[in-house]
């Protein structure tokens, strides 16, 4: 089974490609996490877990869901992590997670996809995004082949920088940066509720027809990148930047 979580569509696309290539069922964790649903999942022996990279590890909300959910029959797990540039030493923490779940970790594959974290970086324009996705296709094919042949992914890079970013920087980043306070909405907002519907942590409510953010943000960027009116900003950091979600390609 392919389990995936996706903020703006990169991991969703990779997961669909892998599911199609392996002929395996696909389960979207966004819906389960949003509903607080940790009911047991009949997975079969092989799991492929596809997620974006948040602060050089898998998202905390995904890790929490995996830890609290029985994955019936699962024995092996491969991780595929989409990112704008790098995943750091995420594989180390994925192996810890597998150990806690009684799974054999078959490694972590890095998949560079278009950047979406406009709270800090610039998202690409459409043509550049297409080119980045095209360059990622062979890596997706390699991941499919490894799982099909029951091979572990090649070892991830583990330089001092990688260990530092996934280690001490990760909790500092969450504590200092992963907050919703900077999100604002402008007059072009139509009150469509797209941001409310897409938020995986139920952190957004509509009040007098406008979104209001709470204290449980995971910085997936779904609200700002899917807003059809581009009415949402993240302080001054998103001003003038292109929004990105995969379906826009």
From TrEMBL:
<dbReference type="Pfam" id="PF00037">
    <property type="entry name" value="Fer4"/>
</dbReference>
<feature type="domain" description="4Fe-4S ferredoxin-type">
    <location>
        <begin position="210"/>
        <end position="237"/>
    </location>
</feature>
<feature type="domain" description="4Fe-4S ferredoxin-type">
    <location>
        <begin position="179"/>
        <end position="209"/>
    </location>
</feature>
<dbReference type="GO" id="GO:0046872">
    <property type="term" value="F:metal ion binding"/>
</dbReference>
<keyword id="KW-0411">Iron-sulfur</keyword>
<dbReference type="InterPro" id="IPR047964">
    <property type="entry name" value="EFR1-like"/>
</dbReference>
<dbReference type="GO" id="GO:0051536">
    <property type="term" value="F:iron-sulfur cluster binding"/>
</dbReference>
<keyword id="KW-0479">Metal-binding</keyword>
<dbReference type="InterPro" id="IPR017896">
    <property type="entry name" value="4Fe4S_Fe-S-bd"/>
</dbReference>
<keyword id="KW-0408">Iron</keyword>
<dbReference type="InterPro" id="IPR017900">
    <property type="entry name" value="4Fe4S_Fe_S_CS"/>
</dbReference>
<dbReference type="InterPro" id="IPR029039">
    <property type="entry name" value="Flavoprotein-like_sf"/>
</dbReference>
<protein>
    <submittedName>
        <fullName>4Fe-4S binding protein</fullName>
    </submittedName>
</protein>
